[in-house]
Amino acid sequence: MQLTSRLALMNWLTGQGLTGLPENELLRGFCERCRAEGLELSRALVVIDTLHPIYEGRGFRWSDRASNESDAFEYGSTAEGDAAQHWRRSVFFHMLEHGHDEMVIDLADAPSLDFSQIGELAEKGHKHYLAFVHRFGENGALGLMDCLYSCWTTRRDGGFSEAELESLRDLVPVLGLAIKSAQQVDIARTLGRVYLGRGASEQVLGGRISRGVTERIKAVLWYSDLRGSTGISESIGPDEIIPFLNDYAQAVIDAIHDAGGDVLKLIGDGVLAMFTGEDMAQARRAALRAEHLFRQNVAALNKRREADGRPTTSAYIGLHVGEVFYGNIGSEDRLDFTVVGPTVNEVSRIASMSRSVDRELLASAEFYKGLDAAGRRYLVSTGRYALRGIGRAQDLYTLDPEVDASEPVTGSYERYLAS
């Protein structure tokens, strides 16, 4: 590839990296431009470590022929099981173990090599294989994201020429920098979504990071905490506590997200969430839908845990509606994007009252009154109560026992929630 062509491709990579072109599109555009300049690539794979609670890394593929392989994928831990064995047989692992940055393989030698996937590439007509490992410096690493791996093949009988190898040595680091830049944006979004919640993450990444910048909104608030979690935690081994909490947090959070809510905060085994929208009656219905989904999730979870001989529980849930301040609150060097206000205090008190009245769901009078007539049919009053720290007494409501006891009523309620 001529110097002017290489410079043009470097400029393209730089420009597209700055505009935020997705990683798979960067790789596709790179390979197609290489081929247009006579560098006959047949397959490319780029893998980069990531910072994610589930995945260890992400990979991106390109091929000169149509296939059913996805052009982007994520993978879990390579520390154990089949994944570990596959990783230890890879060219990349061999390169790391021996301190190599580059490795060239004539695929005619594949039968004599004990590397994973090399034989498959030879069977599919690829002739020559080039692999790179580009390590990030200490200041360029982010958690486990400290390497970019790539491999390149050609079907040409003579393999890559020395000039083509030199071109790839010049160009692949620029491609890697563009992919690393895109990955860092993905990581920021992932960490924001995981640690702040979906709505708060969008606000922060959208630029609302100034201390004290809040918005006054009306919201349906959800507060839940687990039944008997302290006693259960004291009765099980220390290594079982986190899996126990994670199982039930998953059941709660999945239900809230599936119903369109936003989880704001995890407080021990408690969850604070909100449901918003222009139609607050719909937001109330979404909260009830989340509560119903949670009960279904818990029923399935408890069945699995019982089969494994592990302790089970459920949760107390409080629902309330009111105005809150939503935004950045805290000190100059430690901010929290959350909601504050009397409504938040009240919903936590309502959830606590669930223990006293032995009901797993309690909703405030404000929540009840704002439901449509169809929704109010499914709630009944548990009595009038003065909540701790709240000056006025109010009626609190729970689901009519008939919702669980009568199949026709259950079906009617589920249709209401789905409508």
TrEMBL record:
<dbReference type="InterPro" id="IPR029787">
    <property type="entry name" value="Nucleotide_cyclase"/>
</dbReference>
<dbReference type="GO" id="GO:0035556">
    <property type="term" value="P:intracellular signal transduction"/>
</dbReference>
<dbReference type="GO" id="GO:0004016">
    <property type="term" value="F:adenylate cyclase activity"/>
</dbReference>
<dbReference type="InterPro" id="IPR050697">
    <property type="entry name" value="Adenylyl/Guanylyl_Cyclase_3/4"/>
</dbReference>
<dbReference type="Pfam" id="PF00211">
    <property type="entry name" value="Guanylate_cyc"/>
</dbReference>
<dbReference type="GO" id="GO:0006171">
    <property type="term" value="P:cAMP biosynthetic process"/>
</dbReference>
<feature type="domain" description="Guanylate cyclase">
    <location>
        <begin position="220"/>
        <end position="351"/>
    </location>
</feature>
<dbReference type="InterPro" id="IPR001054">
    <property type="entry name" value="A/G_cyclase"/>
</dbReference>
<protein>
    <submittedName>
        <fullName>Adenylate cyclase</fullName>
    </submittedName>
</protein>
